[in-house]
């Protein structure tokens, strides 16, 4: 009898779902968030930088200020994920932790390779971080930023599922 009063919600393209009791149905079926739910409720807008993706992103150049990725100027450290470019909240290689890398191992579909550019020089990262990512099925390449940009472009041109975390080199290293 209890099985008849449950609803099965499916995740996108998944055979596994979440069962909810019939008491939850009225909330799911009829409530849409609005201004009364949150005093900070505001409509959002999206600016499309590129209407159609013509493939994987390409890093055209770098400087101490940031990067030129597919013609978009990105200031400061960034994450490059096909098809997104995001700001990355790190200041140096010392800020690269499991928490700052969480996005890479939580993504679906999983990335094959993560290229990390650590600035002017190749820096050693905590071995436990690298082994954790390997256990998650992600190969990691740690390089200085100029070589990381080139490696990312090469792997992307081969249509590999690749992401990059890049820290701009300091002005004296350009």
Explain how this protein is built.
Helices cover 19% and strands 25% of the residues. It contains four helices and ten strands; from the N terminus they run E-E-H-E-E-E-E-E-H-E-H-E-H-E. The protein has helices spanning 25-30, 102-106, 127-135, 145-157, and strands at 7-10, 17-20, 59-62, 66-69, 72-75, 78-81, 84-87, 113-117, 139-143, 162-166. Strands 7-6-10-8-9 form a five-stranded mixed β-sheet, with helices on both faces. It is globular, with a radius of gyration of 21 Å. The model is unreliable at 1-31 (pLDDT under 50).
In short:
By secondary structure, the chain is α+β, with helices and mostly antiparallel strands. It has helices at residues 25-30, 102-106, 127-135, 145-157, and strands spanning 7-10, 17-20, 59-62, 66-69, 72-75, 78-81, 84-87, 113-117, 139-143, 162-166.
Fold topology:
Blueprint: E1 7-10, E2 17-20, H1 25-30, E3 59-62, E4 66-69, E5 72-75, E6 78-81, E7 84-87, H2 102-106, E8 113-117, H3 127-135, E9 139-143, H4 145-157, E10 162-166
Number of strands: 10
Order of helices and strands: EEHEEEEEHEHEHE
Described by the principal axes of the CA atoms, the overall outline is globular
Radius of gyration, in Å, reads: 21 Å
Low-confidence stretches: 1-31
First and last CA, distance: 70 Å
Strand-residue proportion: 15-25%
Oligomer: single chain
What structural category characterises the helix and strand content?
Answer: alpha+beta
What is the tally of helical segments? Answer: 4
**Main sheet properties:** 5 strands, mixed
